[in-house]
Amino acid sequence: MRNAIARNISSLTCLLLLNACASVTIDEYQAADATLQGQETVVVLGRRHSPDYETEPDLISCVSKMISGGNIQVIGEQEFVDQLYPWFEPRMAPMRVNRLSLYKAKPQVDEKIQSMNIRYMVWVDGNTRTTSKSGSIGCAVGVGGGGCFGFGSWHEKSDYEASIWDYKNHKLMGKISADAEGTSYMPAVVVPVPLLARVQSNACKGLGKQLRQIFSGRE
Amino acid sequence: MAKLQHLQLTKKRLRRFCIGLGLALLSLIHGCSNSLIATGSFPTPLVQPLNASASAFYSEELRSHHYIEEHKDRRKWEIATGNIQVQFFDTLLPSLFKQWQQAAIDPLADPTTLQHQFGDKHLVIRPALNDFQYSLPRETRSKVFEVWLKYNMQVYKSDGELLADWIVTAYGKTPSAFLKSDEAAMNAAIQVAFRDLGANLSINFSEIPELKQWLELNDA
Questions:
Q1: Structural domain containing residue B168
Q2: Which of A143, A169, B6, B146 is most deeply buried (CB count within 10 A of its CB)?
Q3: By the CB < 8 Å criterion, does B203 face chain A?
Q4: With contacts defined as CB-CB under 8 Å, which chain A residues touch B42?
């Protein structure tokens, strides 16, 4: 009896540890070397100007965490945007690298950016969306107990592009694009068991790894 | 004896069923309406303050603004925005002027006191919320809440004369609704809308033609 229970628990644990698959494609274009010198810092920002979508804050946070470490210091997005309010709000944020010269011309803005030692701004544009869904799961609760039964799946797609701007020289240093997709499954036999493809997470890892390589100067 | 035990068991099951049904009904009723007192904190704008003295007056209508959804086809929302409006303008407006006076004098009701206290070169800002609109995830088929604000900004001189009057709009949507309650997601959208309003006002305030002219005249 105990062996049977132990077997069931270990099977369930193995199932939970399994992730559904996701594929990631990374493309990179680098115009010039973008390594950090001394106390220079990086800030990762999300594009939120479009009415149809906005770059998820948790993806930006994920990319920032992937990049930071060692000699790479990353300023948090919210901290940067608050300190420079309102110049990086969605309605004010520069859309092209040559617009940075306008910020240089405003002493209080330039001083604030300089005080944070910002050298590179990484603008991430894109989102993760569910492209299709199928199946259904029904759950019921009664006096004697409850449970779920069924099978559901959904396909997700991520498209992100990161642009690296050099604040000091007002130049575009490079672009990285990350496309990921995958299908998640949810079989339910009494208890639903999610098998998630983690598409956004994989896109973040791909972007973060490439950015870290660029800023640390390693190929 | 067996009959008595069977009766007791049936009573227990019936009681459990009634409790379960009651809880289900309660959650259903709760899910049909939402109530929120909007709150938020806002950063001070990084702008060059105008060389002028100013104060703000918030009407009772603004301070106690309460939006109640009346449309039959929409879920009932009650949103109190008085506190967040006062908090927002108290953070934004003082940073736009070199001299800020904390004096809640209505330029329409009491221009004499205003002029006596602050002189001729003083402005009073009187914001008024004209319209508050929102959309819910169910309506837009997306995960986020959206909020639109429409303000009528009025600037008075200290003698009670209206100097400038313009409409300003703002938009905000929930940055991320993941694992948030409806109320928290709506509050986040309202905060973003006020941040957008602050960006609009702080950059464009000094470009309002009547204000710009007044500032140039009084700076000379």
A1: 35-217
A2: B146
A3: yes
A4: 85
Helices A57-67 and A199-216 cross at an angle (nearest 10°) of: 40
Peptide bond into A86 cis (omega under 30): yes
Is domain A5-216 given the CATH code 3.30.160 in the classification? yes
Residue A121: beta bridge partners?
Answer: A43, A165
Confidence of residue A25 (pLDDT cuts 50, 70, 90): very high
Q: What is the pLDDT of residues B121-155, one digit of tens each?
A: 899 999 999 999 998 876 666 667 899 999 999 99
Asked whether the predicted pLDDT for residue A6 surpasses 80, the reply is no
Size of chain A, expressed as the number of residues it contains: 219
**What's the complex ipTM?**
0.82
User: Does one domain contain both B112 and B185?
Assistant: yes
Q: What is the pTM of this model?
A: 0.84
Judged by a CB distance cut-off of 8 A, whether residue B20 touches chain A is yes
Angle, vertex CA B19, rays to CA B13 and CA B21, nearest 5: 100
Distance CA A137, CA A191 (A): 11
Residue A164 to residue B191: CA distance in whole angstroms? 29
Of A1, A65, A45, A62, nearest to A162 by C-alpha is A45
- Cα B61 from Cα A140, distance rounded (Å): 48
**Are B69 and B85 contained in the same domain?**
yes
Both tokens of B191, joined, read 């905060």
Contact check, Cβ <8 Å, A83/B43? yes
* Phi, psi torsion values for B109, nearest 5 degrees: -85, -35
Which residue type, as a one-letter code, is found at position B140?
A: T
Triad B163, B164, B165: Cα angle to 5°: 135
